[in-house]
Amino acid sequence: xxxxxxxxxxxxxxxxxxxxxxxxxxxxxxxxxxxxxxxxxxxxxxxxxxxxxxxxxxxxxxxxxxxxxxxxxxxxxxxxxxxxxxxxxxxxxxxxxxxxxxxxxxxxxxxxxxxxxxxxxxxxxxxxxxxxxxxxxxxxxxxxxxxxxxxxxxxxxxxxxxxxxxxxxxxxxxxxxxxxxxxxxxxxxxxxxxxxxxxxxxxxxxxxxxxxxxxxxxxxxxxxxxxxxxxxxxxxxxxxxxxxxxxxxxxxxxxxxxxxxxxxxxxxxxxxxxxxxxxxxxxxxxxxxxxxxxxxxxxxxxxxxxxxxxxxxxxxxxxxxxx
Length: 323
Ligand code: HEC
Ligand code: HEC
Hints:
Elements: H1 2-21, H2 29-39, H3 72-86, H4 88-91, H5 102-105, H6 107-110, E1 127-129, E2 134-136, H7 138-147, H8 160-172, H9 203-213, H10 215-218, H11 251-261, H12 272-282
The protein binds heme C (HEC) (2 copies).
């Protein structure tokens, strides 16, 4: 029923989308200009945060363009990495255990600001990570996304899939200084002072907000629809979603993504509180279990928003009375 009601606005949205989609690939001067104006200094490296569903195929830097790399073999691997990033399920299916692509979360091929961009991150590895309590390389991190966000298995370090993804992510960092975190990194967060204790998040309000703001594209059941061929979001919960060891299984972290990157009709329009309520609703559901999550954070410091972590919460803090 609600689905029917939602069809009209979505259709209007997609009709608008098609008009914009024509000729939106390649050098779209208006988007590039918007990027410069809205983010002063980011230049044309990243798509602006306000960009909506109709530009989901747009790339500030297109790896399919000419002159990607002087070495034709390397150029082909950069392109292959991009294709895997965008269509992991089909092109790296042996390592993927759900319906996610890397670009389900790192929008526009990792080239959109406030949507977990990967531009300029290659030069920051190896880096110390608390979750592992050791130095991790970029390839480690890619493998980590496969076993957690993609609920799959880790491709070997020297596997063509790992190397192609690494080549694409390195290419995204061309021209960005190495060793210093770029200004646009880490923006998908909820500021500490706005964080609401997990037990205080009201699931009834979370569900209402979700149904109102998200269900048109993600469905009342979280599974999601094919959006007129532009994109198909992956399930937000259930057996085909990220597992409970993923970054997105943490309430404040997922809220940071939702706050700035969603809804794709008007990214940035939610408040910190609304984003946390919706995040709580999404992560109150069942999802696949990450088998070795108990050995994460071996040096301590387990995050206090990890609702599926029985070492932090003996029972799921959002299940029970409210549902
Ligand atoms: C379910 C959403 C999701 C999916 C799918 C996903 N990621 Fe991520 N990724 C995140 C989040 C959230 C972070 C940020 C922090 C964290 O989780 O620790 C991240 C961080 C990263 C980082 C580190 C960025 C930095 O600034 O240090 C890399 C590299 C990365 N992801 C690559 C990938 C690749 C490659 C894939 C596909 C194999 C992928 N991700 C799939 C959510 C996702
Ligand atoms: C206009 C359609 C639309 C709306 C409305 C929308 N989303 Fe999305 N969302 C998408 C698309 C499309 C993607 C995947 C992008 C891709 O694959 O390139 C996505 C991706 C996501 C992801 C990354 C993981 C996944 O499963 O794909 C999360 C989390 C998410 N949306 C949450 C939300 C929440 C929460 C809301 C409501 C506040 C919302 N979205 C509203 C279209 C939408």
